[in-house]
Amino acid sequence: MKQQLELLCRIQTIDTNIFRSEELKRKYAAELQALEEELKRTEELYHAEQERQKQSEKELLRRERELAEARDLKKRTEEKIMAVKTNKEYQAGLHEIEMIKQQIKEKEDAIIDSMDACEAAKAALQKAADALAAAKAQCNEKKHRLQKELDAYLAEIEQQKKQREALVKEVAVDLLANYTRLLKVKNGRALALAENEQCTGCSMKIPPQIYNEVVLGESIKTCPNCNRILYVAYTSDNEAQRQSA
Ligand SMILES: [Zn+2]
């Protein structure tokens, strides 16, 4: 029985690793999703800056058009006053030109503001583009590293699965069936180490008689509380106990 238990212990170690590989896959998927979301946020920031820059260019064009119109109006008004008949009309025309000149001055100032805004928007866009490129590179690097880690672990698991196939052939059919059932219902942990008369699977105290039998290792004993198959780590102390029992 001791040999059978030892076999089960080795199988359990492999099963624990297999179980962990599923956890690792889930963790990998979650980390990947977090990375993608972070990248998406950076992308959104970039698109917002792109839109802001486009709007500032549009505003500049609009102001330039308005200035051209004002200059055109000034020219037409200047031509108009050449043809007026009375001094009163001439004075009114001059006054109109002065107003237009004032408007032109305001529009020129507005264009300078607009150019500044365009420059600032351009710089902000460049910054966002740099941040996006860096985030993309970082995301790819992280993805690559995670995938490599996962692949290495999964390759190791494949090896262990092959070892497991050989090991299970040596376990008694009934015992293996019990182990397999426990593995399923006990969340991947069918075996529990009995330590200091305590089950490490559920932390309950093991009755002395059962514990002694586990130490003897002549039959398969399960925890009365969690039903896991109990085993002991043979140290020289309980080995001596085993010998004298
Ligand atoms: Zn237990």
Please provide a written account of the structure:
- There is one protein chain.
- With 245 residues, this protein is mainly alpha-helical.
- It has two domains: 20-168, Helix Hairpins, CATH 1.10.287.1700; 173-244, no CATH class.
- Helix content is 79%, strand content 4%.
- The chain contains five helices and three strands; from the N terminus they run αααββαβα.
- The chain has a three-stranded mixed β-sheet with strand order 2-1-3.
- A hairpin with a 2-residue loop joins β1 (191-195) and β2.
- α1 packs antiparallel against α2.
- Residues 236-245 have low confidence and may be disordered.
- The structure holds zinc ion.
- Zinc ion (ZN) is lined by residues 192, 199, 201-202, 204, 223, 225-226, 228.
Write the layout of secondary structure elements.
Blueprint: H1 2-82, H2 87-168, H3 173-185, E1 191-195, E2 198-199, H4 208-216, E3 229-231, H5 236-244
Parallel strand pairs: 1-3
Antiparallel strand pairs: 1-2
The protein binds zinc ion.
Bound molecules: zinc ion
- What's the order of the H and E elements? HHHEEHEH
Number of domains: 2
- In angstroms, what is the radius of gyration? 41 Å
CATH class of the largest domain: Mainly Alpha
Largest sheet: 3 strands, mixed
Binned, the helix content reads over 70%
CA-CA gap between termini: 16 Å
- Residue windows where pLDDT falls under 50 for at least 5 positions: 236-245
> What structural class do you assign from the helix and strand content?
mainly alpha
Number of distinct helices: 5
CATH architecture of the largest domain: Orthogonal Bundle
Q: Give the neighbour order of strands across the main sheet.
A: 2-1-3
Net shape: rod-shaped
Mean pLDDT: 93
Portion in beta strands: under 5%
CATH topology heading of the largest domain: Helix Hairpins
Secondary structure tally: strands? 3
